[in-house]
Amino acid sequence: MEIRFDHQTHRQRVIFGTGCVVDNTAKAIEQLDVRASLLIASDSASEVADAIAMETPVARRIDGVVQHVPTQRADAARREAVASSADSIICVGGGSATGLAKAVALVTGLPIVAIPTTFSGSEATDMWGMTVEGRKHTGADLAVLPRTVIYDAALLAGLPVSVAISSVFNAIAHAVDGLWAPRADPINRALAAESLRVLIPAITEMAEQPNSREPRESALYGAYLAAVAFASSGSGMHHKICHVLGGAFLLPHAELHTVMLPYVTAFNAHAAPSAAQLISETLHTTSAAAGLKSLAATTGAPLTLAEIGFPKDKIVEASGRCLEVIPPSNPRPVDLEAVSSLLQAAYEGDAVE
Length: 353
Prior knowledge:
By secondary structure, this protein is α/β, with parallel strands linked by helices. The chain has helices at 21-32, 46-55, 71-84, 95-108, 161-177, 186-208, 213-233, 237-249, 253-268, 273-283, 288-298, 315-325, 336-348, and strands at 13-16, 37-41, 58-63, 88-93, 112-116, 127-132, 135-140, 148-151. The strands form 2 sheets. It has a 6-stranded parallel β-sheet with strand order 1-8-5-4-2-3, with helices on both faces. It has a two-stranded antiparallel ribbon with strand order 6-7. Belongs to the iron-containing alcohol dehydrogenase family.
């Protein structure tokens, strides 16, 4: 069997270590040779942002971020960056903090040092997203790829278990969607396989031992690998659906991925048997989709769109929006009826095979 593919790897520095975020941030900023940074911090990361600001020059600080990066917030942050003469960005927080930093970098070209406090994986990709009038617009640009990522498991010690579980499912979704995304290739598959090998036991251990450092470190490592695979392979059916639903109906990002992943996996499984086999073998189940849903159930994650606030009367409207953006390369052909049935099943929490 002949092997042919065209793979692109992005250049990025990764500093991994528990309990040394302030020193590692100073090290990263020194390497960039910049004067003062725009510091973006989520509310939950205010203390670590304070500590960083004590040791690293800050031109301006933005506290508090909003999911799905509303364009008004992006515009305001860009104005702050210009007015303060910041020549770099430090973002501390989950995917929303990283997303706002990317929105600034997209226009200004400022280099980003990303310090994630969840397992979202946005820090490892060149993908950006912003919401304009209820529609989430996404794209890819190397200008938004953080120059340096600093991973510190200590920053996730206070993350509520339910939030941590959904965040790890978000990472698992990067790995799974990367198996059948438009630019999927053997290298992405290898990264996804290793990430799933690490993430699946980590999420179980995290649910059972929420105060343990080891599963948090493993999950950060796995989340990074999954995001690198996703960045290279592109956004597949699962992520396209989640971007539409999240932007239009303001649904919680990680929880939305958790709910939708088993249903998209069930839809694609027969058309992508090698991907389904990889997932099911890692889960030690006979069905990839059922295994993912069982993992969500046993770890206490949300299981239905109804639970996370999706309005049932919007299924038809949402299906049309999703159909507009699902890649034509999806392993199984998609039409309006298929998307509507998928969303209906996810709303009701139907069993998957």
